[in-house]
Structure formats: structure tokens, C-alpha cells
Specification:
5 helices; single chain; globular; alpha+beta
Length: 123
């Protein structure tokens, strides 16, 4: 898994905290992410799994997304995980005011590492 974007004081979680934009391959989703999803997020993922894989969008935007990955917004305390399409941080809905900030890339194998991670903002 990897992250290179964060959202400080993310308002999409039940309490404001850092949200990390995390990319995962299908094995990581199956073994590490999916079991932790709420029933609502599992239904969303199961219903539209092909929509959430980044292949098409990443092919056209290789500097913004990795191919064949799934993207999640994960709270720093790892209690909340939300799935979005890979273009979510870059979508027009933000009107050039995206709350996401670039950070030094962080590669990790266990979600609990997010809880202790000290991000360095780069942009």
C-alpha cells in the first residue's frame, strides 16, 4: 500500500482527523482493506468494483494514479475507510480548491502504520 496525499481535518469522517489517500492492489484489498469496510462500503465496492479500479483513468493520467489499483480514503486512526474512484482528489468538484495536499510517498504493509506516520507535506 502507498500514500502520497493527505486531507487534514477531513470532514468525511465521524471526527475531523487526517485522511490518507491510499492505493492498494487487489490482494491488499482482499486481505487488508475489505475485511475492515463497513457493510455499506462493502456493498458499494461489490456493486461497482470495476468502476473503482484505476486502470482506465490511470492510463490517461499516469502521473496522478497507478494502474490496476484501488483507492481509499483512510482515517489516521484506521477506524474509517471510504472507497472512491481514483480521480477523487483531482475532480472538478473542488473548483481548484482540493483539500488534498501532497506528501512524501509512504509505502507500508500494515494499516496501523498510518496511526504512527508523521507525514511531510511537499506541495
Amino acid at each position: 500500500m502507498r500514500t502520497d496525499l493527505l486531507w487534514k481535518n477531513c470532514r468525511l469522517f465521524s471526527k475531523n482527523q487526517i485522511g490518507y489517500w491510499v492505493s492498494c492492489d487487489s490482494d491488499e484489498v482482499k486481505h487488508l482493506i475489505y475485511p475492515l469496510l463497513t457493510d455499506q462500503e462493502k456493498d458499494k465496492f461489490d456493486k461497482d468494483q470495476e468502476m473503482y479500479i484505476s486502470t482506465h483513468w490511470a492510463t490517461k493520467n499516469p502521473t496522478l494514479a497507478l494502474k490496476d489499483r484501488y483507492y481509499f480514503l483512510i482515517s489516521q486512526d484506521v477506524r474509517e475507510i471510504l472507497i472512491f474512484e481514483s480521480f477523487f482528489p483531482y475532480a472538478g468538484q473542488w473548483n481548484y480548491g482540493s483539500p488534498f495536499e501532497a506528501i512524501e510517498e509512504f509505502i507500508f504493509s500494515d494499516l496501523i502504520e498510518l496511526n504512527k506516520f508523521k507525514p511531510i507535506v511537499t506541495g
